[in-house]
Each structure stands twice: as structure tokens, then as C-alpha cells.
Write a structure and sequence with these properties.
Blueprint lengths: L5 E6 L14 H16 L3 E6 L7 H6 L4 H25 L4 E5 L8 E2 L2 H9 L3 E5 L9 H11 L4 E6 L4 E2 L11 E2 L1 E3 H7 L6 H9 L4 E5 L5 H6 L6 E4 L1
Helix pairs in contact: 1-3, 5-7
């Protein structure tokens, strides 16, 4: 028995780089596709949102002279590239998929709507929602929260390169302690930067719990779905 029947999986663009400094590591992409395919085989309905930081990040582009709106739009397109790459890897693994885009760009992907996304999920397809929210000034974390709420996911799984949430950066502070569970209010009070405040507030107000875990350790995604105690749960 799996613990969650419908999830929203948030993947960072940076994680797709693997050991590279830029772009997409095909080995990492294949590993992710294999892990996601295992969930589908268990009957889990999977929605996915991917960042674009391995290609272009709008906010950092703005600091280098790009117009913020244009920079964010470039970042949205980067998420589409990553989504198409993951879509291809999943299909190669024998998994049915559907790519949605938050701005119209058929035939690259179907224009997103909640009803069509849920219909695809119920039909056994992995739904990859690209393009962020379709608006500048909103991160892909916020897009993940929004889409997770819209598709009525039971939980948002935030796959990162660390194994949970710590009281401080464990790479810089040897005294940093890991939380097994932490409330949204404590995230605010401690000023922990797990996601931007807009995303965190959306999850809090709509009672969508978040589980932060290390996606790069193969098998962890299946452990999460099976209810094993890994990562950190953020809750009301």
C-alpha cells in the first residue's frame, strides 16, 4: 500500500545538471525517469513541475542587465526545455506522459487547465506542467504550490540535493540540526529559505503539506511514497 495516491513532485533545474556545470545530465534524467516510472507502476498519480535554473534563471538575469519581465519569460522557456527532456526520458522508460504549458505554445505542449490535467492523471499519465505560473515575478516553487493545489495533490514533494530541512546550512554550520517535522509558522519564524514566501503561504493557506527530501539518492522517491521516514515534512 502506498501512502499517497496523487502527488505534485517539484524538481529543481539545477538537479538536472548532475555533475555538469550547465544543462542536462542524461544519466541524471534517466535516473529520475526510472524512479518516477516505479511510482506509476504502483498506481500513484504524478504531477511534476521543474525549475529552469540549469539553463536560465530570471532573477539572476535581472542582476546582469536583463529586463526582469523578459528574464522571467526566458526562465519560463527554460522550464519547458527541461519538461520536454523529462517527457522524452519517461516515454523511453515506457511511461505515458502529457506536457502542459502555462502559456500557449502548441504543438510543444497542451495549454494547461486543471480539468485536463486531472483527466490525464486519472488516465494513468504523468502530467508535466511547464512554464511556471505563466507570469513574471513568480518562481517555479510558487508554480508548484499552485499546481499542487489545483490538481488536488495530497502532498508536494520537493526533490532537492539535501536530505531535508536544517536549522542552518549544514555545509557551513557543523551544529546544524535536521528537522523531521516542522510547521509552516516555524518556517516563517526561523526565516528558513526552503521556498519563497509566496509558495509557502499558498501551501499553508490551502493545507498542502510539503516533504523536502534528497531526490538524487536513488530509491528515495519510492521510500517517500511507501511512507518511510525520510526528509522533512512541513505542515500546518
Amino acid at each position: 500500500m502506498v501512502k499517497y495516491k496523487r502527488i505534485l513532485l517539484k524538481l529543481s533545474g539545477e538537479s538536472l545538471m548532475g555533475e555538469q556545470n550547465y544543462g542536462i545530465d542524461t544519466n541524471r534524467l534517466t535516473e529520475y525517469a526510472e524512479q518516477i516510472t516505479e511510482l506509476v507502476a504502483k498506481g500513484v498519480q504524478v504531477g511534476i513541475v521543474i525549475g529552469g535554473g540549469n539553463i536560465f534563471r530570471g532573477l539572476s538575469g535581472a542582476t546582469k542587465g536583463f529586463d526582469r519581465v523578459k528574464g522571467d519569460q526566458m526562465g519560463m522557456l527554460a522550464t519547458v526545455i527541461n519538461s520536454l527532456a523529462l517527457n522524452s526520458a519517461l516515454q523511453a522508460a515506457g511511461t505515458k506522459t502529457k506536457v502542459f504549458t502555462s502559456i500557449r505554445m502548441e504543438p510543444v505542449g497542451e495549454f494547461y487547465s486543471k480539468d485536463k490535467a486531472i483527466e490525464a492523471l486519472v488516465g494513468g499519465e504523468v502530467v508535466i506542467i511547464s512554464g511556471g505560473t505563466g507570469n513574471p515575478y513568480f518562481t517555479t516553487d510558487t508554480a508548484s504550490a499552485l499546481r499542487g493545489i489545483e490538481i488536488e495533490a495530497e502532498i508536494m514533494l520537493k526533490g532537492t540535493r539535501v536530505d531535508g530541512i536544517y536549522s542552518a546550512d549544514p555545509e557551513k554550520d557543523s551544529n546544524a540540526t535536521k528537522f523531521e517535522k516542522i510547521s509552516f509558522d516555524e518556517i516563517y519564524n526561523r526565516n528558513l529559505k526552503i521556498m519563497d514566501l509566496t509558495a509557502t503561504t499558498l501551501c499553508k493557506e490551502n493545507n498542502l503539506p510539503i516533504l523536502v527530501f534528497n531526490m538524487d539518492e536513488k530509491g528515495n522517491l519510492e521510500k517517500v511514497i511507501n511512507g518511510e521516514s525520510i526528509g522533512t515534512i512541513v505542515h500546518n
